[in-house]
Specification:
single chain
């Protein structure tokens, strides 16, 4: 039985307000001590390097809505993957053609890894509009921002004084990315007993911190899956496996993006990794499934079942940005013409970029520049247009590290619900310090990272937090 999507209401509930009330009742000295404890627990993660706002509470939604969000995340993700596999028909070169991946960036083909290892990790980008989730896009692969900061921050908040009190009263709980990833590895490892390499670059950990790798390696090792952080720039790869400092690894998790810089510096090593016999979790093949062109395709399919079609109610209308007919609800429009005449409502996104690179907001662009940009991106044939979402402003209490005091922020929030295998991995957030939705897409400056947890009915026993 599926969760009732119509019942998903992602607005802060009574437990959220109670947490904020308890924080407001703290004296200045108590608040300062609480903030220092949270900051120390999350030290070196680097997740607040672009802001002075330290979250001292999570976003709390009711448990039924949390389960509904996770169910929608799972079902939409499966629909997207199924659509991509239909296109590929066993040949991922066809999928690369369809999504517009250039020939010189296909070094990861042919793909040799089982899809369970390729697509086991995902995180959606979700805005909330009048309490309902709107899924903007899906990101597949093991390198997902927030996967370390979310469980670390959640644990710190749960162990705070207000956190303990609200958890006991409201049955607060959450899922853990660490636990879900460990289960994913255990399910997919070809053999037990060998060491797993968490591959990355020290400067490129989650939110820019080496400690992200160390925390996850320590967690998995303590649970019986020995792991090490292994710098990718120091490994050797051959027919016998992956080697570093005299240790051979038969499995590896790719915790880095294959950016232009990485490809330029390590092209041969990247190709060797993808085509080796090493069990590789988070293969570059996942990038094909992350293409925004696939979401645009779904809106143009006329063969979706009524149930599948209803899922698209939770996605802003998206179409490839090109001249010609495109389905929009029960009508047919020209996507390029629609973008021209609906500038305030349009967002332009490159099909195969990541991290908000190349995103153009009509509402933040002058009319003259908009017309020129539209002409350029239509010619490129590598963009989609997505209808903008007017996100709800959510209230949250922060510790302002510069002013050294608690402060209330009411601003839109971007949710990042994780799925790992068939498990929920919790949900991270980004929120600007001011009520400007454009900041969520255009810049990291002024953004604070947080997490979402769920609350059962009052009196429900609390669930102890796990990593």
């Amino acid at each position: 039985m599926h969760a009732d999507e119509s019942a998903v209401d992602l607005r802060p509930g009574p437990a959220h307000r109670e947490w904020a009330r308890l924080l407001g009742a703290l004296g200045s000295g108590e608040a300062a001590r609480l903030a220092r404890e949270i900051e120390y627990s999350c030290r070196e993660l680097g997740i607040w390097q672009h802001t002075d706002l330290l979250p001292v509470q999570p976003f709390v939604v009711d448990a039924a809505s949390g389960r509904g969000l996770d169910e929608l995340n799972a079902r939409l993700g499966r629909l997207l993957v199924s659509h991509a596999l239909d296109i590929a028909a066993g040949d991922f070169g066809r999928l690369a053609d369809h999504t517009g991946v250039s020939q010189d960036t296909r070094w990861f083909l042919p793909a040799a890894q089982p899809l369970g290892r390729v697509l086991g990790c995902s995180r959606a980008d979700v805005l909330v509009q009048t309490g309902r989730p709107k899924f903007l896009e899906f990101n597949f692969g093991a390198c997902l921002n927030g996967a370390t900061s979310t469980p670390v921050l959640t644990r710190a908040l749960f162990e705070s004084g207000p956190g303990i009190e609200v958890r006991r009263a409201h049955g607060i709980s959450t899922q853990s990315v660490f636990a879900a990833r460990l289960a994913w590895l255990t399910d997919q490892l070809p053999e037990h007993g060998g060491r797993v390499a968490l591959l990355g670059f020290a400067r490129d950990g989650d939110e820019g911190s080496l400690r992200a790798f160390e925390l996850e390696a320590a967690h998995h090792s303590a649970q019986g899956v020995p792991c090490d952080f292994v710098p990718f720039d120091e490994v050797d790869i051959d027919a016998g496996g992956l080697h570093w400092q005299g240790v051979t690894y038969s499995a590896a998790v790719k915790y880095f993006m294959a950016s232009e810089r990485v490809i330029n510096d390590y092209a041969d090593r990247l190709a060797a990794l993808e085509q080796s016999d090493v069990a590789l979790f988070g293969s570059q093949l996942a990038a094909l499934f992350t293409s925004k062109a696939l979401m645009a395709d779904l809106f143009q399919r006329g063969d979706l079942s009524p149930t599948q079609q209803r899922l698209l109610d939770f996605v802003p209308w998206t179409a490839r940005l090109r001249e010609g007919p495109a389905r929009r609800g029960g009508a047919v429009v020209d996507a390029a013409e629609w973008a021209t005449t609906h500038q305030e409502s349009a967002v332009l996104k490159p099909c195969n970029a990541f991290g908000s690179r190349g995103v153009i907001l009509g509402s933040a662009t002058s009319t003259g520049d908009w017309e020129q940009l539209l002409r350029e991106v239509v010619r490129s044939d590598d963009y989609v247009v997505q209808e903008a979402v007017a996100p709800d402003p959510w209230p949250l209490v922060y510790w302002d590290r510069q002013r050294e005091e608690l402060t209330d922020v009411t601003a839109p929030v971007l949710l990042g619900p994780f799925r790992v295998g068939e498990r929920s991995g919790g949900c991270y957030t980004k929120q600007p310090g001011v009520n400007e939705p454009a900041r969520l897409m255009r810049s990291r400056d002024g953004l604070s990272f947080g997490c979402v947890v769920t609350a059962e009915q009052a009196g429900t026993p609390t669930v102890e937090p796990g990593w």
